[in-house]
Amino acid sequence: MTQSIPNRSATASKTSSSADTDQDRLARGRRALDRIDGEAGHNVIAALADIAPDFATYVIEFPFGDIYSRPGLDLRSREIATIAALTALGNASPQLKVHIHAGLNVGLSRDEITEVIMQMAVYAGFPAALNGLFAAKAVFAEADAKASEAASV
To answer: Rounded to a whole number, what is the largest CA-CA distance in the chain?
Structure first.
């Protein structure tokens, strides 16, 4: 027997304090998403709008509203961990690119990002590290193109 999982609209009858907490999580998550991922993060959320808008809300609330907003690690450290984890997975290139952008947004240098990815060759293997380095190369080229475009305007 399968158990039905209620969707967001089915849970709209929450108590007001619970609804306030959800709004706090969402607002906190939106602020964190802006600060960390910027445009790349908003593109991911927008891409989910027509297929899974509730999932987009979950992405904002849990990773950004709850986890990234916790004390204990600064955003640079969190992005180092995220870039390392996504590189080690070896199959998350779109997400890795978003977080390489995020790493740049929170102050990681290109050299630091490259070193984190290279470090993963030891633990995740050369194919995963190569995939990560090519993702970084694409993000860096995109950032250079945007900077060049902005400078010419």
So the answer is: 62
CA 11 to CA 18: how far, in whole Å? 11
Find, among 130, 51, 25, 43, the residue nearest to 95 by Cα. 43
Beta strands in the chain (DSSP E): none
Q: Distance between CA 11 and CA 20 in Å, rounded?
A: 14
This prediction's pTM: 0.81
CB–CB of 108/139 below 8 Å?
no
Angle at 128 between CA 32 and CA 126, to 5 degrees: 140
Q: Which amino acid is at 28?
A: R
- Whole-angstrom distance, CA of residue 4 vs CA of residue 1: 10
What pLDDT, in 10s, does the model give residues 100-124? 999 999 999 999 999 999 999 999 9
Closest CA to 107 of 79, 82, 84, 86: 79
What's the burial of 142, exposed, middle or buried (CB within 10 Å: 0-12/13-18/19+)?
middle
Residue 32 has pLDDT above 60, yes or no: yes
d(CA 39, CA 20): 27
